[in-house]
Amino acid sequence: MTRITGSSQLAKSINKVLLLQNIRKSGAISRTELVEATGLTSGTVSNITNDLIEEGLVAVKGRAGSTGGRPQVLLEINNNARLAVGTNVGSTKVISVLTRLDGSILSRSDLPMERAWSLERQVKQIARSISDVFPQSEEQKRRVLGIGLGIPGLLTSGNGVSVFSPNLGWRNVPIKSLIEDQVACPVTLDNSVRVGALGERWWGTASQVSNLVALYVGTGVGAGLIINGQIYKGHNEAAGEIGHVVVSEGGARCSCGKFGCLEAVASGPAIAKRALSRIRAGEKSILQDMNVDESLITSEHVYQGAKKGDALSLEVLEEAAHFIGIGMSILINLFNPQVLVFNGGVSNSWDITGPAILKTAQALIFEGSNPDIKIIRSSLGDSVGPLGAATLVIEQFFSLPGVNTR
């Protein structure tokens, strides 16, 4: 990492960010250690850290144990100094959280979302979700860095437009400006699966891993990619559409028009549809005794049936697990990540599907290419989307646009 010297305001801003990053990563660090870690002079470190303490961004944690000399003062980030709102929009639910700088969630809102609603009603519901968690006091409002927003489908994050989101019925919707008009706070936008990967990288089990793939399997299927510590979006911000890779020749028809896409054979709706099809073909299942209308069977019902030993439910989940394992092997062979994190509603069945997923994935990974790969289920559950969205603005706070200080 190159230190920036000189007396310009830019140099001071960059060095300030550099020090903030090192304090955050260490948890608690002395000024002497900051000098060693950054290459800055002791005078620069002392002056800037004093400013950061005065601003309330950094706090004195205590003193390090003495090794014979004067005990060193330890510095840490004041995680209450700034707050962030993160909102993740799905086809059935919108979840918002208010977090501190360390990702700890202070409040959360879960509201329903429907594709059939008008755009105006959808926007108002997203704004309501944000308002539910937004601080009420003026003092706290001033600490909010901004709002991170994750949405499904294709988008252009630069101008804040949802290009195509089939799960929400959106085409060329200027969602960033529409939400900003409602909440009067700056919004940073990205794809919901990508922000989930960002959340995993900052706060999940795979924290601080530089190369990570997050596979989401729920109503839809997608992958978020972290390459060399950065979100990878692709040329047109369409990277990670593993849900529309064909994994079953002649399989079920997908919403995209193709047949046998991963989303069409392994998503939550696909699992429910497969179970219902077999029941209607005359097969017996405990699902018929669950006091639920056949047309309302969900993948969660199939999972509950499998937990009770229902043969049909177990077979349907095992079939989906096989295809998910194929999808994982494709991602691992293509991107060679250190960790692949599995999330989404279907991941809740990990206790049943996990062995079959791992067996298929490990059999199809190119031999010797990634012997240390870890395939794990997310520890963050459905908080990962809104938490990752909040991280969009937290990450901006700990960086300087156009300057790589990592």
What does this structure look like?
- With 406 residues, the protein is α/β, with parallel strands linked by helices.
- The longest helix has 25 residues, at 311-335.
- The strands form four sheets. It has a five-stranded mixed beta sheet with strand order 6-5-4-7-11.
- It has 13 helices and 16 strands.
- Helix 2 (31-38) crosses helix 3, helix 4 packs across helix 6 and helix 9 crosses helix 10 (299-307).
- It has helices at 9-26, 31-38, 42-55, 119-133, 138-141, 175-183, 192-203, 262-266, 268-280, 299-307, 311-335, 350-364, 384-397; strands spanning 29-30, 58-63, 73-77, 83-89, 93-100, 105-112, 144-151, 154-156, 161-165, 170-173, 187-191, 212-217, 221-227, 230-231, 339-343, 374-377.
- Strand 8 (154-156) and strand 9 form a beta hairpin.
- The N and C termini lie close together (7 Å).
What's the domain count? 3
Given helix and strand content, the structural type is alpha/beta
Question: Which radius of gyration do the C-alpha atoms yield?
Answer: 24 Å
CATH 4th-level superfamily of the largest domain: ATPase, nucleotide binding domain
The first-level CATH class of the largest domain is given as Alpha Beta
Low-confidence stretches: 402-406
